[in-house]
Design brief:
- The complex is a heterodimer of chains A (250) and B (207).
- Chain A is an alpha/beta fold and 250 residues long.
- Chain A contains nine helices and ten strands.
- In chain A, helix 5 runs parallel beside helix 6.
- The longest helix of chain A is centred in the C-terminal third of the chain and has 16 residues.
- In chain A, 49% of the residues are buried.
- Chain B has one domain: MetI-like (MetI-like fold), CATH 1.10.3720.
- The radius of gyration of chain B is 20 Å and the shape is flat.
- Classes of the chains: A alpha/beta (250), B mainly alpha (207).
- Chains A and B meet through strand 6 and helix 3 of A and helix 5 and helix 6 of B.
């Protein structure tokens, strides 16, 4: 059974229609890569399903419960957010909190977990992303790659059913991308359900189970990653993949 | 110098109230609370647009004519709090708005609500940004309290005037008074430097 379904998602900013009826379905354990040119609506899609933007219309089925995105209540949003994690392009670590506090803040404040328990859990997660030795560092003392790994630990803190990644490596220097991707790869291998908006073709091809190509606010093509990359159905997808290959293949 | 025993509490009490007013006034604007937001803008407009000395006179000499009598010291506290609150409200608003929207979004994504994110994430960062300009206001206020002499509050300037009137030692007394204010500001400048150092423990608001 699908753990997350989106039906007919519409979103416009002023005159621009950014999402023109997007539907998708994600099963438990899926790693879905969302690809496509900038401005195609990928990020807006993620932000709408985690309510950072308010969708104009559409429905979301999360964990078996159907929600109307245009009239969803604050309580419903809060309850869904407690079961999801979000990783931002520019990390958005709390600047006044240490790495460990970034991970424990939500647990202690939003979930009312005991501080001791939250810290033990936080340390385990930092260890998992290779950041335990930097637990007491502030974001300003960490590199971009390190910050993003802490951000992933923070997203994992709630033991989420799904994690959304919004171009998690796009703001990173090339030599720092690898450390973040390898953390994401190990999460995928553990069976974490993930939606990843990305320009990393290698990651999409080799790690994700399914890939989606999005352009101009619609999903052009989707399929299991193996056939998506080896044998795309549409010319436009083929063109895009070719272009990306040329861009990165040099 | 008995005047000191008035200037210090006048400054401390007024600035504390001013900070409370400032944070509340900034918050209703940032949170866009419908009617209160307009009220906040009106308050800032009126207070910043009229002289402090006139405000002191209105409260101390004006209000009794409509049946409200306020003693000199409380009148001064009320006026200084309300006056400084308006300026500091703008400082706080600018500081809160300077915190990137992503901090708020990240807070929502870990399940926190608006008030929790404001108090634990946004306001502490805003306070770091606001700290130097707030100290500007505080140092300015120490000196502005001398205006309270005009409504018979026996603070330092008032005391100096009285002694000068008796002894005719104008130059000595007023220079001495100026020196005392300077010492006050010097101490506060040191406190500011120390405070900034502490607040910088997390690298200021650098990313």
């Amino acid at each position: 059974m699908a753990m997350l379904e989106v039906h007919d998602l519409y979103k416009r900013f002023e005159q621009t229609e950014v999402l023109k009826g997007v539907s998708l379905s994600v099963d438990k354990g899926d790693v879905v890569a969302v690809l496509g040119p900038s401005g195609g609506g990928k990020t807006t899609l993620l932000r709408c399903i985690n309510f950072l933007e308010k969708a104009d219309s559409g429905t979301l089925v999360f964990d078996g419960v159907t929600h109307d995105l245009s009239s969803i209540t604050r309580a419903e949003i809060a309850s869904i957010r407690l079961r999801t994690g979000f990783v931002f392009q520019n990390y958005n670590l709390f600047r006044n909190k240490t790495a460990l506090q970034n991970v424990t803040e939500g647990l202690i404040i939003a979930r009312k977990m005991e501080k001791k328990e939250a810290e033990a859990r936080g340390m385990r997660l930092l260890e998992k992303v290779g950041m335990a030795d930097r637990a007491s560092h502030y974001p300003s003392q960490l590199s971009g790659g390190q910050q993003q790994r802490v951000a992933i630990a923070r997203a994992l803190s709630a033991d989420p059913q799904i994690i959304y990644f919004d171009e998690p490596t796009s703001a990173l220097d090339p030599e720092l991308i690898g450390e973040v991707l390898s953390v994401m790869r190990s999460l995928a291998e553990e069976g974490m359900t993930m939606i990843v908006v990305t320009h990393e073709m290698e990651f999409a091809k080799n790690v994700s189970s399914r890939s989606i190509f999005m352009e101009n606010g619609v999903i052009v093509e989707e399929g299991d990653s193996a056939s998506f990359f080896s044998n795309p159905k549409y010319d436009r997808t083929r063109e895009f993949l070719q272009m990306e290959e040329n861009r990165t293949g040099i | 110098m008995p005047g000191l025993l008035v200037t210090i509490p006048l400054t401390v009490i007024s600035f504390s109230f001013a900070m409370i007013i400032a944070i509340l006034t900034a918050m209703v604007q940032v949170a866009n609370v419908p009617v209160l937001r307009k009220l906040a803008r009106f308050y800032i407009w009126v207070i910043r647009g009229t002289p402090l000395l006139v405000q002191l006179y209105v409260v101390f000499f004006g209000l009794p004519s409509v049946g409200i009598r306020v003693d000199a010291f409380p009148a001064a506290v009320i006026v200084f709090s309300i006056n400084e609150g308006a300026y500091c409200a703008e400082t706080m608003r600018a500081a809160i708005e300077s915190v990137p929207a992503g901090q708020m979004e990240a807070g929502y994504c870990v399940g926190m609500n608006y008030v929790q994110i404001m108090t634990r994430i946004v306001l502490p960062q805003a306070f770091r940004t606001a700290f130097p300009p707030l100290f500007n206001s505080l140092i300015g206020m120490v000196k502005d309290t001398s205006l309270a002499a005009n409504i018979t509050v026996a603070e330092m300037f008032f005391a100096a005037q009285r002694i000068a009137g008796r002894t005719y030692q104008f130059m000595t007394l007023y220079l001495e008074l100026a020196f005392i204010y300077l010492m006050f500001s010097t101490v506060l400048t040191r406190v500011q430097a120390w405070g900034e150092k502490r607040l910088n423990s997390y690298g200021g608001n650098k990313i």
